[in-house]
Amino acid sequence: MVERLYREAAVERAMKVQEVIMRAMAKQITWWQAAEILGVSTRTMRRRRREWQKMGFDGLYDHRWKRPSPKQVPVKELETILELYREKYSDFNVRHFHEKLGEEHGIHYSYTWVKNALQASGLIPVRHKRGPHRRRRPRRPIPGMLLHIDGSQHRWFQDERQLDLIVILDDATSEIYYAQLVDQESTRTVMAAIRHVVETKGWFSCLYSDRASHFFRTAKAGGPVDARERTEVGRALKELGIDPIPAYSPQARGRSERNFGTWQGRLPQELRIRNIGTIEEANHFLWTYIAEFNRKFAVPAAQPGTAFVPVPHLNLDRIFSVHHHRVVANDNTIQFGNRVLQVPSTRFRATLAGCRVAVYEHLNGTLSIGYGPHTVALFHAQGETTDRRPEKAVESAAAVEIRKKHGFPQAAWKAQNAFHTFHSPGGGSSTYKRAKSKP
Question: What is the torsional sign of CA 138, 141, 145, 151?
Fold first, then answer.
C-alpha cells in the first residue's frame, strides 16, 4: 500500500538504498563506501540508516515526492491538453502539436513538458535518442547554386490514395520553391516544376535528383548513369545550361529526405483540419502553405547575394516540352501516334514535303510543329488546328541585301528562298529569274 503513493522511480531508488544498507550492515562494505555508491555524504548515509531502522522500507523513500511542486501545471489544463490531442490532433507529431497549442489555443508550455505529458499518458510512444549523425555536407553559400528535386509517395489525404508530392528546395536555405501533388512523378510533372522555378526565380546552376528514368538513362538498374544519352528532362536542362547531378543513395539526398519527413508529418494533418479532399484544392492550398513552411524551416544563407539569373530571351514553351522528330509526307501531313496532322502552307517555303520537322508536346496538352526557329502549325490536344496563326518569318538583314541586289519581289519568304538558293552547298545557280524592271 505504501509503494502506490510513490512513483516507480522512487521505489527503485528505495530498493537500491536498502540493498546498500544491508550490505554495509553485513560488513561486506564500509559505511563510507556505501555513501560513495549512493552519491551522498556520510552524514546523509547515517540518517538513512536511522530512518530505515525506525520506519522500515517506508523510511527510505524520498518524501519530497508527496509534496506538490509550486510549478506544477493545474490538472484541468493538463486534461485540456490531453483531450485536444485525443480528439483533434491525434495524428500530429509533438512539435506540430506544440505549435498548434500556442497558435490556435493560447496554451504556452515548453516543448519538453508537452512531450513528457503525452508520453506519460501513453498517447505517444517513447522513442530512443538517435545515434550520432555522420558529418553533413556543407550547404552551398548562396541561393541558386544547387537545387534539390524529388517526389514522395504517401497517403496525403489519409485514405487509400497514394499520391506523389513533388518538391524543389534550395540547398543553401532549404527554402521551398515548388510543392504540388500529382498522380505520379513523370517527365511532364517534373518539367512543370522546373519551369515554374525558372520562370519565377530564374536560371540556376545545378539540379540534384535521384536516378529515376525521367532524369537519367541507366544501362542497368541501380547502376551508373549514361551521360551520352539524355532524357527529355536532361535535354531541357542542357538547353538551359543547368548541370544535372545524380544521387547514388538515399543518404546522399539526406537534406531532401529529412524535408519530406517534415512534409509527411504535417501536410496530411493540415489538409484534414481544413476538410480538403481533392488534388485541386490541395494544390491551391499549397501555394499559400509554402510561405508558412518556409517561415518555420528555412535558414539564412551563409553569404549574401544570389546565383539566379533571369532568362527572358529563352523560349520556355519549346524547352519544356517533349520533342519528337518526323518527316513531312508528300501531302504535307505528319503521322503522330494515331493522329494525322496536316501541315499548312508557310510564308517562307512553298512546301515542307520531305523536310524533317519537330513535333512539340507542350505541358498544357497542345501540340506544335517547328521547322528550325519557325512555328508552322499549332494544334489542340485532339489534333485540331487552332485559330491562332503561326509566327511570321522574319526577314534577315542578309536577305534584304540579296533582294535589293538581285531585284527580288518585296516578300520575305521569297527573299529567304533566294538566299538559300544562291548559297546552296552545291553551288547551283538560282532557279529564280530577276524581276523585269518597268520602263
Answer: positive
Please tell me the predicted confidence (pLDDT) of residue 231: 92
- At a CB cut-off of 8 Å and minimum separation 6, what does 131 contact? none
Q: What is the pLDDT of residue 223?
A: 80
- Strand pairing of 146-154 and 206-209? parallel
Q: What is the pLDDT of residues 208-242, one digit of tens each?
A: 998 888 899 888 777 888 888 899 999 999 999 99
pLDDT interval class at 395 (50, 70, 90): very low
Q: Which residues contact 274 (CB under 8 A, 6 or more apart)?
A: 285
CA distances from 423 to 254, 399, 407 (A): 57, 11, 17
Q: Report the pLDDT value the prediction gives residue 70, as an integer from 0 to 100.
A: 61
Torsion of CA 381, 383, 387, 389, to 10 degrees: 100
Distance CA 150, CA 207 (A): 10
How distant is the alpha carbon of residue 180 from its chain centre? 9
How far from chain centre, in Å, is Cα 231? Answer: 21
Q: Note if the pTM is more than 0.85.
A: no
Distance CA 212, CA 216 (A): 6
pLDDT confidence of residue 424: 38
Q: What is the mean pLDDT of the chain?
A: 81
pLDDT for position 302? 92
Q: In sequence order, what DSSP letters do the residues of 6-71 get, joined into one string?
A: S-HHHHHHHHHHHHHHHHHHTTSS-HHHHHHHHT--HHHHHHHHHHHHHHGGGGGS-GGGGSPPTT
Report the top-level CATH class of 146-297.
alpha beta
Run of H or E including 272:
helix 254-273
Residue found under cell 546552296: 424
pLDDT tens per residue across span 266-322: 999 999 999 999 999 999 999 999 999 999 999 999 999 999 998 878 889 999 999
- Which of these, 195, 197, 182, lies nearest to 146 by C-alpha position? 197
Q: Which string of DSSP letters, residue by residue, matches 310-347?
A: --TTS-HHHHTEEEEEEE--TTSEEEETTEEEEPPP-S
Grade residue 64 by pLDDT with cuts at 50, 70 and 90. Answer: low
> Where do the DSSP E strands lie in 132-252?
146-154, 163-170, 176-182, 206-209, 243-246
Q: How far is CA 8 from the centre of its chain?
A: 46
Contact of 214 with 321, CB cutoff 8 Å? no
The DSSP code sequence of 110-138 is -HHHHHHHHHHTTSS---PPPPPPPPPPP
